[in-house]
Design goal:
single chain, 7 helices
Amino acid sequence: MSLEELVAITKDVISAIISKPKMAEKLLSKPPFRFLHDVFSGITTTTGFAEGLMQGDELNSASITDKSAKIAYLEKLFNFLGVCTGKSYEVRAAKVVAGLEPENTNIFLTAFAEAASDSSYDTNAAVERCLNGEQAGTG
């Protein structure tokens, strides 16, 4: 699937959940960290999905300034979704922070939004498992 097709799907799925930030093709084609943080935060606020996973400075994108902190934030989200859904995702935090592999980033964004819309997942248990150190694929 082309990046343009993935962006269109991501835009549709996320726009059905949140209105801000605006799902602009330019932002989805090479998503900056702040945009990603705003998307994940917006989905969590609207749906309650992954609530409690991020704590302290992680809740404010302005507090996450260096590359290692951005990677840690994204890895925490990637792990959470894997623990929650039992699936693995072909997305690497270092590549996302560098603006590379936008196709995989869009696939992950769509998967996160779809999982947030699916009430069959026990998000509270998944958050607890992640905070206790469980890694996706080990539980």
